[in-house]
Design goal:
The protein is mainly alpha-helical. The chain has 18 helices and four strands.
Length: about 425
């Protein structure tokens, strides 16, 4: 299949359109990942406490009007025994304020973030199963529909647990789309263009992430308005992706859909002013007749099983697979740890989030050239070393310069 793509349509009109559609759709994925930073931000409030004298008689309020986002332990203790009550600056600004996630309940907002990543973990497996069994295009749509349903459920959430479950579902749909879109782009273009086609969605992802900060600021008075905006945007992107996204030629070939594959490749080549030789696609399937006797369901099942077990069939592949798994695990812990923990940057959450997101853009522009000219293995090694150095610097250098170093570390992480 790579030889046909390389010779007749390496990166033609339809492949460019597919790359553009999936890149623009990455904006919705970015919104889902970053939205919880603002939705579950610490509530802004002050205490209204009633002081008592030695005989237990109530005196005048003592701490009225003191704005806090990290209240003193003593205030929380008074709140728990009923002597203090929180007065929120805007009860609808964040979900933490609306659901009263303060003091001993403050950690529940972090639990919702954790559930989002649990959903992403499950979504990785679901994406592989759906894309191998039913096609890449179907899996992309399922990922979008799950994310869309999760956004609607988040908007209508009446309790924290409903919010947490909806964010878990959002993580599942987000990862289902992201993994499948990466595979679909890799299988639809010639090998020499894969670095470009797979980096562009990440570039647009960073743009969508950074643009979320001003959008969140506009809707800072009500967190549900922010979620509604993201939901409408996702619905439009999901519709456009489903209407104009084509199926993966590799999936069509592996599942014996040769007529559909030949029609698609012929349409691609004709747009480039070339004619696909008759019977060229059919010659790719050496044992298509034997596979056809087994039936499409059995063939798909065996293909999925072979693909899922292929990383573990040889010692070299096992070592490579576990190395990449550990690399991604380490990078995600550090990357999302920086993105979701912005207090150390010393500025407001909107500016901090914007700076951390924009810091990725130079790396993504540079990596398009580096992957093609330097190679994959040297890029991974050098970027991991740089990430380690800059993250170590951000941990030890003085707090006044920590924002710069954290942004640089985030850039190196994105390059990796």
């Amino acid at each position: 299949m790579d030889n046909i793509l390389r010779e007749y349509c390496p990166f033609g009109y339809y492949q460019k359109r597919l790359t553009l559609l999936l890149s623009v759709a990455a904006i919705a994925t970015a919104r889902q990942v970053g939205m919880l930073v603002f939705v579950a931000a610490p509530a802004s409030y002050h205490w209204d406490c009633v002081a008592t004298n030695t005989h237990g008689a109530n005196l005048l309020p003592t701490s009225r009007g003191i704005n806090v986002t990290s209240p003193a332990t003593g205030s929380c203790q008074q709140f728990e025994i009923g002597k203090c009550s929180p007065i929120y600056d805007n009860r609808l600004a964040t979900a933490t304020a609306e659901f009263g996630l303060i003091c001993n309940k403050a950690t529940e907002s972090r639990f919702a973030q954790s559930l989002f990543f649990v959903g992403m973990l499950v979504g990785s497996w679901v994406a592989g199963y759906l894309s191998d069994g039913y096609g890449r295009r179907a899996a992309v749509l399922v990922g979008f529909l799950l994310s869309l349903a999760a956004s609607v459920a988040t908007t209508l959430a009446t309790s924290f647990w409903m919010l947490a479950v909806s964010r878990c579902l959002a993580g599942l749909g987000t990862m289902c789309y992201a993994v499948t879109a990466h595979v679909l782009l890799s299988e639809s273009v010639a090998p020499s263009y894969r670095a470009l086609s797979n980096t562009l969605p990440n570039l647009v992802f960073s743009i969508g992430l950074s643009s979320l900060a001003p959008i969140a600021y506009v809707f800072s008075d009500n967190w549900r308005n922010l979620v509604t905006f993201v939901t409408v945007e996702m619905a439009l992107l999901a519709l456009s992706s489903w209407m104009w996204t084509s199926e993966s030629p590799c999936w069509l070939l592996s599942n014996g859909k040769l007529e559909q594959l030949e029609a698609m490749i012929s349409r691609w080549t004709q747009k480039e002013g070339k004619n696909l030789p008759t019977g060229l696609v059919a010659s790719l399937s050496v044992s298509s007749d034997n596979q056809g006797e087994q039936g499409p369901q059995l063939k798909t099942s065996r293909a999925s099983e072979q693909i899922s077990l292929s990383p573990f069939l040889s010692r070299r592949l096992r070592f490579f697979s576990f190395s990449m798994m550990w690399t991604w695990f380490s990078l995600c812990v550090m990357y999302y740890g920086l993105s979701f923990h912005m207090k150390g940057l010393g500025s407001n959450k909107y500016v901090s989030f914007f700076l951390l997101s924009v810091a990725e853009l130079p790396a993504l522009i540079l990596v398009i050239w580096a992957l093609k000219c330097v190679g994959r293995k040297p890029c991974i090694f050098l970027c991991l070393v740089m990430t380690t150095v800059f993250c170590s610097m951000s941990a030890v250098i003085a707090s006044q310069s920590s924002a710069t170093n954290k942004g640089t570390g985030n850039t190196c992480t994105c390059m990796s």
